[in-house]
């Protein structure tokens, strides 16, 4: 037996004489006595320890075989996947005027037509192969609830189709939350809606400055009330977008959630993300020049660890440390724009050089154009973080370089935060499985 090449070992000062072991391949962790670990390094350990560490992926019979397994992990995920996932940009209109709007000059009264919706339904049906067991649609905008009737029509059609095949249909919304009233939640829940991700950018004074209505009025209080009325109908996930200047104010949000009765048992997950700079090809109607260009920036590392601690400390769930491949690498994942163009990532919509097809003509071969497998190089193939990264985010590379010909290496970021995140999970009893 050999130590896994995807094993991280940290000192664990919280318990004298123990080390913390973490598998980046299996997201497993264990506390081990230093003397036991030193014996393992010499090849001496009990059958009991061998069985446990083997199951956790921390020791392996052959590290070269393990490397081949990880290099084939994405193929294995695709082979086992039984869900057809489609993200639908159902419009590019919005009732908000967010200062960092990611859609820039693409935003406007651009709505999916009934004809395009019909082509979308046909596309999903034709790609729902016999081995699939579930259809999932994520409705995006703009603000997707400005297209409520079309969401209902598509979901009704898909639910009927899936159930006729002995399968399951579910859908989710990514919404600003201002229109998500109880009646709408009840209607959509009956059509397969299981979850909504709603953005709250910190406490009222921060959120209202960054995410006002088009009229300029604040949106915070209305969103809180909508969450309060709907959190028992569908799962509500809260997201928030922070900057270097305002991230320290974000923990103040929790006081407002608790005041509204939105305790951890009412909210499925809370995650905060740094605002990303827009790439040079996005023109925005607002003058916003803040934002990050790499997860390796020191302030991003510091802010991420601080805010995750605040979320977990209050008993809310947050993102777990686990392998999460880029959706571009997932075969049965598509993004359909309101005009019928097909992409592999929401962030690339409207950029024709990243369009992989359309609803009328189908999907072309995109392996070369999207640089699939770009991580199979000297920089990544021997990295202990490969199962957590697989070359990083192509859009992040595009923001920095204007192309996706390089990987988005996360090693400096993971070197800085992984130990902290794992210890947070232990401290707050966060389970990966």
How does this model look, in words?
- The protein has 433 residues and is an alpha/beta fold.
- Among the domains are: 62 residues, no CATH class; 232 residues, Aldolase class I (TIM Barrel, Alpha-Beta Barrel).
- 33% of the residues lie in helices and 17% in strands.
- Strands 11-10-9-8-7-6-12-13-14-15 form a 10-stranded mixed sheet. A 3-stranded antiparallel sheet has the order 2-3-4. It has a two-stranded antiparallel sheet with strand order 1-5.
- Helix 5 runs parallel beside helix 6.
- The longest helix has 17 residues.
- The protein starts with a strand and ends in a 6-residue tail after the last helix.
Features:
globular; 14 helices; 433 residues; alpha/beta; TIM Barrel; 33% helix; 10-stranded mixed β-sheet
């Amino acid at each position: 037996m050999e130590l896994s090449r995807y094993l991280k070992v940290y000192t664990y000062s919280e318990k004298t004489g123990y080390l913390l072991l973490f598998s980046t391949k299996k997201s497993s962790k264990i506390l081990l006595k230093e003397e036991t670990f030193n014996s393992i390094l010499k090849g001496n350990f009990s059958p009991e320890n061998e069985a446990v560490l083997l199951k956790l992926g921390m020791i392996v019979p052959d590290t070269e075989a393990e490397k081949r397994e990880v290099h084939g992990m994405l193929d294995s995920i695709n082979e086992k996947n039984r869900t057809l996932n489609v993200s639908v940009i159902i419009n590019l209109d919005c009732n908000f005027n967010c200062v960092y709007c990611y859609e820039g000059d693409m935003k406007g009264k651009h709505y999916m037509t009934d004809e395009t919706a019909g082509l979308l339904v046909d596309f999903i049906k034709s790609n729902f192969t016999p081995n699939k067991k579930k259809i999932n649609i994520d409705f995006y905008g703009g603000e997707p609830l400005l297209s409520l009737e079309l969401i209902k029509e598509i979901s009704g059609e898909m639910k009927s189709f899936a159930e006729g095949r002995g399968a399951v249909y579910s859908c989710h919304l990514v919404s600003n939350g201002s229109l998500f009233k109880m009646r709408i939640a009840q209607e959509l829940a009956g059509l397969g809606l299981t979850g909504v991700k709603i953005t709250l950018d910190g406490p009222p004074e921060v959120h209202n400055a960054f995410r006002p209505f088009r009229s300029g009025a604040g949106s915070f209080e209305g969103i809180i009330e909508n969450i309060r009325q709907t959190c028992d109908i569908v799962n509500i996930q809260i997201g928030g977008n922070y900057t270097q200047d305002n991230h320290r104010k974000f923990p103040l949000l929790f006081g407002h959630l608790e005041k509204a009765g939105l305790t951890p048992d009412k909210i499925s997950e809370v995650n905060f993300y740094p605002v990303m700079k827009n790439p040079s090809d996005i023109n925005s109607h607002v003058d916003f020049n803040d934002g990050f260009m790499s997860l390796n920036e020191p302030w991003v590392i510091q802010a991420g660890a601080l805010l995750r601690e605040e979320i977990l400390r209050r008993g809310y769930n947050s993102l777990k440390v686990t392998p999460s491949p880029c959706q571009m690498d997932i075969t049965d994942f598509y993004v359909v724009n309101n005009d019928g163009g097909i992409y592999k990532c929401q962030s690339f919509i409207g950029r024709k050089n990243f369009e992989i097809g359309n609803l009328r003509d189908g999907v072309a071969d995109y392996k070369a154009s999207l640089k699939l497998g770009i991580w199979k190089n000297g920089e990544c193939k021997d990295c202990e973080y490969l199962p957590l990264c697989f070359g990083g985010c192509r859009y992040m590379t595009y923001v920095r370089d204007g192309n996706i010909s390089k990987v988005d290496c996360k090693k400096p970021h993971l070197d800085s935060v992984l130990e902290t995140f794992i210890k947070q999970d232990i401290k707050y009893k966060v389970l990966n499985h």
